[in-house]
Amino acid sequence: MSRSESFLTVLLLALLLFPLRALADTGDSWWAMAREEAARDGYRLVDTAGLLQMLRAERSPLVIDVRADYEYEAGHVTGAVNLEFDLGDRGDPGPAKRAAFEALVGEDKTRPVVLYCRNFRCVRSGIAARWAVRMGYVAVYRYPGGLFEWKEAHAELVEGIVPEQRALAPGDSFPDCRLALLSGEGDREYLGLPPDTKWLSLADLSARFALIQLSNTSCPECVRETHRLGDFFRLVEADPVLAGRLKIIGIFIYDSNLAVVKFRRRHEVPYPLFADRHGEIFSCLGQAQVPLAYLLRARGDGTWNIELVKRGYFEPDEAFLAAIRSAVIRAEGTD
Fold first, then answer.
1. Mean pLDDT of the chain
2. CA 61 to CA 64: how far, in whole Å?
3. Residues 220, 222, 225, CA angle at the centre, nearest 5°?
4. Strand partners, 251
5. In CATH terms, are 3-23+164-333 and 42-159 the same topology?
């Protein structure tokens, strides 16, 4: 068994219970929560079989994808239209968004409307459904499973995905990228870069391992994950095994340098953040959604091996820390 295979095997075994807990969370408890919210706010829920039946009915519903436009363009339910809702719309989406909603749906308040976002953890479809009811629409449905569940069941009824781009997976090389440093000397020192360096190339990173988070400033789940990753960063820096060996980096796709700088200041993010303004890195990875996290291992020749991919929101905790620590010790013991 190669060093890379040994590292990945140990890490996957150590993390075995971690995804099982997450799977349990997205089962009956999430449906129960969704049912309570629907009953409270006056709309109805529809599952995958029910949505398929609705789409085949003589009077098909208007399906609205409430994710960000870049997520919609990367893949959406066939025939769906896009109108983004976010956590800031909880209190009031504002007159412009209400007008945009009415323009999409029309004046007929009985027209069936189905709203969805990413998956069960994405609450934006619930926010949109609540406001649709408050605006007087009487046939409002929420599809809690979101695009992830729909794509798993009916990939043939998804538009916008570029089929020729394979998503990179464990064992692949992380794309070589050159990123502009945004926050000066503190980041240079953390990353082990010479003074006055203006760019980070992963080939120049001296650490043995890297945890890279891909996010977007308008993604509510990304904000929550960034806060959790900040706590995880402090655990890593206090750990005698991982400090200096594991570096944490955030890359914000489709965001400007200024937007990322403001985001870091506002949320007091302790680890370096970078901007992938035009989504080049995201495109190379073959992905369609954020947040994403990649655990990388330096091969020693300037390239980085992808050891683990975490798609969607995850909570790095002390169990995750211990798993990585064990894997790092095992990997370094094989040198």
1. 84
2. 9
3. 115
4. 214, 274
5. no
Average pLDDT for 225-244: 92
How does 264-285 read in b/e, with b if 16+ C-beta sit within 10 Å? beeeebebbbbbbeebebbeeb
**What does the H/E/C string look like for 122-153?**
CCHHHHHHHHHHHCCCCCEEECCCHHHHHHHH
> What is the distance between the alpha carbons of residues 27 and 145, in angstroms, rounded to a whole number?
11
Closest CA to 168 of 308, 57, 298: 308
Please tell me the CATH code under which domain 42-159 is placed.
3.40.250.10
Domain boundaries, the chain: 3-23+164-333, 42-159
Give the pLDDT confidence of 241-278 residue by residue, as tens digits. Answer: 999 999 999 999 888 899 999 999 999 999 999 998 87
Q: Which two tokens stand for residue 25?
A: 């969370």
246-253/209-215 β-pairing: parallel
Q: What is the pLDDT of residues 191-221, one digit of tens each?
A: 999 888 888 888 888 888 999 999 988 887 7
Of 286, 310, 293, 278, nearest to 75 by C-alpha is: 286
**What does the alpha-carbon distance between residue 187 and residue 220 come to, in Å, rounded to a whole number?**
25
Q: Which DSSP state fits 161?
A: -
Is the pTM value of this prediction over 0.70?
no
Calculate the CA dihedral of residues 190, 204, 207, 310 and round it to 10 degrees: 100
Please determine, for residue 7, whether its predicted confidence score (pLDDT) is greater than 70: no
User: How many Cα atoms sit within 13 Å of 130 on the Cβ side?
Assistant: 21
Specify whether the CB–CB gap between 297 and 286 falls below 8 A.
Answer: no
- Strand ranges in the chain using DSSP code E only, listed in sequence order: 44-45, 62-65, 76-77, 81-82, 113-116, 140-142, 158-159, 178-180, 199-201, 209-215, 246-253, 273-276, 292-298, 304-311
Which of these, 297, 320, 292, lies nearest to 307 by C-alpha position? Answer: 297
Q: Which CATH architecture has domain 3-23+164-333?
A: 3-Layer(aba) Sandwich (3.40)
User: For tokens 């369609």, what's the residue?
Assistant: 288
